[in-house]
Write a structure and sequence with these properties.
- The complex is a heterotrimer of chains A (312), B (284) and C (321).
- Chain A has 312 residues and is mainly α.
- Chain A contains eleven helices and two strands, in the order αααααββαααααα.
- Chain A has a two-stranded antiparallel ribbon.
- In chain A, a hairpin with an 8-residue loop joins β1 and β2.
- Chain A is globular and about 80 Å long.
- Chain B has a single domain, classed as 3-Layer(aba) Sandwich (Rossmann fold), CATH 3.40.50.
- Helix content of chain B is 34%, strand content 23%.
- In chain B, a hairpin with a 2-residue loop joins β1 and β2.
- With 321 residues, chain C is mainly α.
- Classes of the chains: A mainly alpha (312), B alpha/beta (284), C mainly alpha (321).
- Chains in contact: A-B, A-C, B-C.
- Bound molecules: adenosine-5'-diphosphate and magnesium ion.
- The site of magnesium ion has 3 residues of chain B, from α2.
Chain lengths: 312, 284, 321
């Protein structure tokens, strides 16, 4: 008399087991994909990576082409982006988390920020094209005025045109919402008791922020900043819209220089039909992935440091 | 904000003096007992529309330990946080009536709360040292509004740590993190931190409730010593603790002051039934 | 002894030189104003995006001598051929359909796998394995999308799809969809995991106490309880898929056609914009302006989806906080 109950139980256990396998399979796919991606690109690109590849400019002949210009372009653009987006993101987060009272307006601003984080990056490119490259058409390219001349390192002209400065600002627009949200979470994780303690000693609001909240939140903020920057370094679409040049034969010398970035160079090579250029694209991707891994390791190390509690 | 005594028809004969003038010390009539550090008349407080303190009349004498006792939720912490205006940080918290510290109106909207909090130190329920070194924790308050020479600052940190009976334990590791200290040490560090700003008064909100019995004993000992230098208000859940450390005790129940007076009288010979029930552990 | 130290401390505390009070108030005020203006900048950004897109789109619809451009024909037209032939056609539906097709494929790939992985991470995985998996996902999330595009073009199509069926061309919606799916997988996963971990432990304990298996708890308690969070995660991930540009520009092809056939090449809204901004279309020309109308359409769709996602997310945060 095998009871119905026993059968039901064994069926439930079977289901349980199948479900676990399903979950495991799903998880393995993520890892598998990462491995296949890395390996296939490594196989294709490995032979092209060389010092010559890193140190020469683009060329119509695949054997002579290199990524010096996009590599330096990426560095310039990302530094500008970081200098703008990280302080602005932290500042906005401070206002929202430490100063702003709970109100309808705060809720709307918050909603707006999460909406901005969902705006496709190519749309930011369109905004940047109008705002930074053309200054909304206020001054046409003929009568633009400038500071310094194109030889000096502080050269600036208005509007910016498709320059590294415009590129950096564009990427800053893209990652600003991400940066704000990450910093806000960091401030939220600072225990309220620390703020109370500082206030009770006679701190003004800014002193509480500067001496207690910000130092306590900083490691988390930096982790978020690194992840945001790893997004910025891989962005191509918005820079393509503002006219990041696909073929550049010099490295930037000042904020008004033409530029291209690694992802754009990859896009350019990947889009060509010849297999030699695909090899170059794969090699450039390898360089890009190494940079990415460095960024991610930095984030992981920072997070380990974070294990130190803020409170006993 | 402060209302004349019309709101307070009958007051305890002991505390009925002329309404506190601006500078109590200077104009005090010679006949009355020492001036109060804290005095409140018809003091009411709300969170939003929820009134949590009702018509309190209480005087707290200087250089004494005053204990606040009462069941949880009766408003002890709320009252304490009005004395250094920490309630300003809670949206919707407001108060009416008179509350003054040495004659200074504490409910004045234009009062410089930053300055007030330097005169009234506070110690919290759970030790909350900053994630900084021991030295930086103690030097935190002094550095906020004044500039000290390095030697003065070191001297100040040492004296504050001595005043909180912590110096001997930490003098060799002032630069290590405060989070490495034990719970009792952390709480004494928080007391040192408050002492270092040179306050005249210390507020302590259940300072021992997160500590083990031995640390509790050392903090109690410290409080008794500190009484010579500061006016101390301590909130406690623990009746024995109140009877051990406080000179005067006030018993609150559901937002009202039921009884107040010298600790030994309140504990041995309470006038009020509720007080008697509470101190004898029959409820709460 | 202690009293002496306390008196000394008070004396020394008096010794310091006070900082100016007036300066302090002024400083606090200006810092606050500065931070406030930074916060306003986010609102200005949104306003600027909408104004630029609206202005240029208005320019597109009111362009002279082009009878084929009207708001109605733009939104319901089924042919998009701005660059071909004597008579350009501006019906946005083929582009929208292309985007939808790629997004659907991406959703089919990423949503189930992402949710499964999230369940594994939040319910099954031991702490160590969890950290490792999260790191892998973080790396996947950081891989530039142009890399996924390259992967689709040079690996997924020739080595996965074409062996299956020779109807797959060099450019096809399927490979782009799969690559976009891989790209949004980490997003689905981490947002779903957040939603599942927010489910209170007490609910799980209650179910286990009734003799449930882990499957019962996960599938019948945890996921339903975190459902609004999971839905929000799906919406946000699909929004990313809709706005994805470089993958489709590389792998999906360049032919705008109204089709649901995954082996065919399609053009998405974003891919069209790339084509225009990359090419030498004259800035005053109608093709150039049409890309703004497309961008506005894209912006409205994603803004709407993110908005819904944020509302759902807020709902579930309120449930458990
Ligand atoms: N931040 C707050 N907002 C609203 N109500 C509060 C807040 N803090 C305390 N209360 C309410 O005020 C009353 C008194 O609280 P509290 O002063 O903390 O009591 P006690 O310290 O005596 O336990 C309680 O009923 C509590 O619910
Ligand atoms: Mg309390």
């Amino acid at each position: 008399m095998m009871s119905g109950r026993a059968i039901a139980t064994s069926r439930r256990l079977l289901k349980n087991r199948l479900f676990l396998y399903g979950c495991l399979a799903g998880t393995s796919i993520a890892i598998l994909v990462l491995c296949v991606l890395m390996i296939s690109i490594a196989i294709e690109g490995w032979s092209s990576v060389s010092w010559h590849f890193l140190d020469s400019f683009a060329s119509r002949k695949p054997a002579q082409a290199g990524i010096k210009a996009p590599l330096m372009g990426s560095v310039w653009v990302c530094v500008i982006c970081a200098l703008v987006a990280i302080p602005m993101g932290i500042g906005t987060a401070i206002y929202l988390e430490e100063f702003a009272k709970h109100s309808r307006i705060k809720r709307l601003i918050q909603l707006n920020i999460s909406n901005l984080s969902g705006v496709p990056s190519i749309v930011y490119g369109i905004l940047a094209l109008a705002a930074f490259v053309r200054f909304f058409g206020i001054s046409s390219s003929d009568d633009h005025w400038s500071i310094g001349d194109s030889e000096s390192f502080f050269y600036l002209h208005f509007p910016f045109g498709p320059s590294v400065l415009a590129g950096g600002l564009t990427l800053a627009l893209v990652i600003l919402p991400i940066m704000i949200i990450a910093s806000q979470e960091a401030f939220r994780s600072v225990p309220q008791s620390l703020r109370q303690g500082a206030l009770a000693l006679g701190s003004t609001q800014w002193q509480v922020i500067w001496r207690v909240s910000l130092p306590a939140a900083l490691p988390t903020i930096m982790t978020g900043a690194i992840l945001a920057m790893s997004r910025a370094i891989g962005e191509a679409a918005p820079l393509l819209v503002i006219g990041g040049f696909l073929l550049v034969f010099h490295t930037p010398t000042n904020l008004m220089s033409d530029f291209t970035v690694l992802p754009l160079q990859i896009f350019n090579w990947a889009g060509r039909p010849q297999g030699e250029f695909h090899k170059l694209a794969a090699a450039a991707i390898l360089v890009q992935l190494v940079v990415l891994l460095v960024f991610n390791s930095a984030a992981i190390i920072l997070r380990h440091k974070l294990q130190k509690p803020l409170q006993s | 904000m402060s209302q004349p005594s019309a709101l307070v028809p009958s007051m305890d004969p002991l505390t009925t003096t002329t309404p506190p003038p601006q500078r109590a010390e200077e104009t005090r009539p010679a006949s009355v007992a020492p001036p109060s550090a804290i005095s409140m008349r018809g003091f009411n407080s709300w969170y939003g529309t929820n009134q949590v303190l009702h018509a309190l009349d209480l005087e707290i004498a200087p250089r004494q330990v005053c204990g606040f006792i009462g069941p949880s939720g009766c408003g002890k912490s709320t009252l304490l946080r009005w004395i250094n205006r920490m309630n300003d940080t809670i949206p919707g918290a407001r108060a009416e009536g008179t509350l003054s510290l040495h004659g200074i109106d504490l409910l004045d909207k234009t009062l410089d709360v930053v300055d007030l909090r330097r005169r009234v130190g506070m110690v919290f329920q759970k030790p909350n040292p900053f994630p900084k070194s021991i030295f930086d924790n103690v030097a935190f308050g002094p550095r906020l509004h004044r500039v000290y020479s390095r030697t003065d600052l070191e001297e100040l940190v040492e004296q504050s740590l001595r005043a909180s009976a912590l110096w001997n334990e930490v003098k060799d590791r002032l630069d290590s993190s405060a989070l490495g200290l034990s719970g009792g040490q952390q709480q004494r560090l928080c007391i040192a931190r408050a002492v270092a700003i040179g306050p005249e008064m210390l507020l302590m909100d259940e300072p021992c409730s997160a500590l083990d019995p031995r640390s509790t004993a050392s903090i109690e000992e410290l409080i008794r010593e500190l009484r010579a230098s500061y006016t101390i208000v301590i909130v406690t859940h623990n009746m024995q603790q109140a009877s051990r450390v406080s000179d005067a005790t006030a018993f609150f129940y559901e937002g009202r002051l039921i009884e107040s007076g010298p600790t030994d009288i309140l504990f041995t010979n309470p006038k009020n039934r509720q007080t008697e029930d509470y101190v004898s552990g029959r409820f709460g | 002894m202690i009293a002496v130290a306390a008196r000394n401390a008070a004396d020394i505390a008096e010794r310091g030189t006070p900082c100016s009070l007036r300066m302090r108030a002024w400083f606090e005020g200006s810092i606050k104003a500065l931070l406030w203006s930074l916060t306003c900048f986010t609102v200005v950004t949104t306003a600027a995006i909408i104004s630029v897109l609206a202005y240029e789109t208005y320019g597109f619809f009111t362009i002279q001598n082009h009878p084929e451009v009207s708001v109605w024909s733009f939104f319901v037209g089924t042919e998009w051929s701005p660059l071909l032939g004597a008579q350009p056609m501006f019906g946005v539906l083929p582009l929208v359909a292309g985007t939808l097709l790629v997004t659907t494929i991406a959703g089919i790939v990423a949503l189930p796998i992402g949710l499964m992985t999230a369940v594994y991470l939040s319910e099954y995985a031991p702490a160590r394995r969890r950290t490792v998996l999260k790191a892998v996902l973080e790396i996947l999330a950081g891989v530039p999308t142009v890399v996924y595009g390259f992967f689709a073009l040079t690996f997924i199509t020739p080595y996965l799809l074409q062996p299956l069926s020779n109807s797959f061309g060099a450019y096809n919606a399927m490979s782009a969809g799969i690559a976009v799916g891989i790209m949004i997988l980490p997003i689905v996963c981490s947002l779903c995991e957040d939603a599942l971990r927010a489910v209170p432990q007490s609910l799980r304990d209650g179910a286990y106490a009734l003799g449930s298996t882990k499957f019962d708890v996960s599938a019948k308690v945890v996921v339903p309880a975190g459902l609004s969070g999971v839905i929000a995660a799906f919406l946000l991930a699909l929004t990313r898929a809709i706005g994805e540009t470089m993958i489709v520009a590389l792998a999906a092809g360049g032919l705008a056609q109204l089709t649901a056939n995954p082996t065919a090449q399609v053009q998405t809204m974003t891919a069209y914009m790339v084509q225009i901004f990359l090419g030498d279309a004259p800035a005053a020309g109608i093709e150039y302006k049409s890309s703004y109308a497309v961008a506005f359409t894209l912006f409205l769709i994603t803004f709407f989806l993110t908005w819904i996602g944020a509302l759902v997310l807020r709902r579930y945060r309120e449930e458990y906080e």
